[in-house]
Amino acid sequence: MRRRTVAGIAAAVVAAGAVGVVAAAPGDDASDRLEWTSPPLVFTPPGAEDARILTGELRNDTGEDVELRVDQLVVRAADGTEQDGNGRFVQAFGHGLYGPGGPPAPLMASRFDQARLGERVTVKQGATRPVTVAWRHKASPAKQLVLGQLTLDVPAATQP
Length: 160
Fold this sequence. Notes:
The chain has 160 residues and is mainly beta. Helix content is 4%, strand content 37%. It has one helix at residues 111-116, and strands at residues 22-24, 33-36, 41-43, 51-61, 66-69, 73-77, 82-83, 85-88, 120-123, 128-136, 142-147, 150-153. Strands 1, 2, 3, 4, 6, 7, 8, 10, 11 and 12 form a ten-stranded antiparallel β-sheet that branches. It has a two-stranded antiparallel ribbon with strand order 5-9. The two termini are 28 Å apart.
């Protein structure tokens, strides 16, 4: 999978509550999915009109633990195209405290650092986890986040 560029990642807090916007693998029934705990916040950062940032919280209702990885995250537009983007399974920016050589490529650091930086997370059944995603907005708005084998709808009403 090609590496995605990022417009920027910002922090935001999203309150919890049930909404029924879900992610499911094809053929899964309604009780077997990831869900937003509340509608995600999607906004345009000042001075970057072609960028979008989404932040929200997911709940794992798939019936089993799910491993989510940033290298498997894709932003899919309403017209079906992929939009350049990047994400982290955190609600805040955190740098790696690496030296002048910079951090290792995504998912090349230790598993501890991957989890600490939000590159990889195992979400236990019934647990919640924040997600922040940034992408370059094209003509068609984002419709889905693809997380490995799962897709998660991006509610149209949340998009600027």
